[in-house]
TrEMBL record:
Matches recorded under PANTHER family: LIPOPOLYSACCHARIDE EXPORT SYSTEM PERMEASE PROTEIN LPTG, SLR0882 PROTEIN-RELATED
Name used for this protein in its record: LPS export ABC transporter permease LptG
Membrane topology: Multi-pass membrane protein
Keywords: Cell membrane, Membrane, Transmembrane, Transmembrane helix
Residues that span the membrane, as ranges: 12-32, 63-81, 102-121, 306-324, 336-361
Amino acid sequence: MPPSTLFRYIALRTVIAVGGLFAILTCLVLLVDLIENMRFVGKVANGDFSLALSLTLLRAPSLTQALVPFVFLFGSIWMFYQLNKRSEISVMRSAGLSVWRLLGPTAFIAAVFGFIVITAIDPLSASLMSHAETIKSKKQGIDGNQVRVFGDGIWLRQRDSSGQLIINSRNFDEQREVLEGVTIWRFDTESAFLERIDAEEAFLSGNTLELHEARLRSPASEVENYVPIYAVVTTLTSGNLRERVSPPETMSLWQLPQFILLADAAGLPTVRYNIRFHELCSTPLKLLAMVLIAAAFSMRPPRTGGAIQLAVLSILAGFVLYVLSEISTALGESGLAPASLAAWTPAIVASLAAITAMLHLEDG
């Protein structure tokens, strides 16, 4: 069999196995998410099936993207097992082909698809997920995503029954819970400008924002008033200040680096965003590791009871990889490990373990 023919044959088998499993799991995940969204729309005003369906479709790319590593793991295991069961792998090996040659097409597809995920699919899924979260926030009556980070610092918007506040801060000191270099614009319920307040520091204290050495200006007076301590009623706290920033899942690989730089300069925590960035970058290696693990499990000579053992081992491998990924992420978010190390560790460990198993299989 010519090399190109063999490559196309194994690649086609891989696409069929991985694509079929992906379609099945996608249907199950979307069905579960649709049920959850039906519960959500039942609790909000003007909620109906069309809203639940639209939320499910908007969230679909992001939800299914999380399935990709496990789809490649179990899909590749099934594909290699079927080739092994029909003795096709034995024939190929007897023809002098190494195990690396046999898994080459599947590994190539995994690596290419990994790059497609992080460069094209993830930006789309992040955008759609952000739109879905905005819709849910509006339906719940929450003015979501009120915090934005730009080159000139943090921008916040607060709207309630008394009017609207637009707050700009140069920096946020998380240890002291202080906004530094603060400017506040106050508007009434009709969006008419009331006053501007400038202060060097603003302390988050309960339901008030205490501005020290505040300078007030209003349209009714051209004179700037000085107030040692000026209190502004607010619902903002240091906790929901972090929560109201757009979550990492709503940002693509291209948006994360700039946001991390701006958020770090503004004093906002960036650990989750760093982990998200490195997890996306490690996707091709992670998918490649899934293929190597699948080959290590399913390329051994078939024997009685092998299918049951293979199923148990594959499920165990998937569970171990999931636990390792969760532990690594938790260590990174807690600051016990660098974000880059926490994100890359599962892919690197899985790859090294699979390569070791493959070398043992190839060389005995």
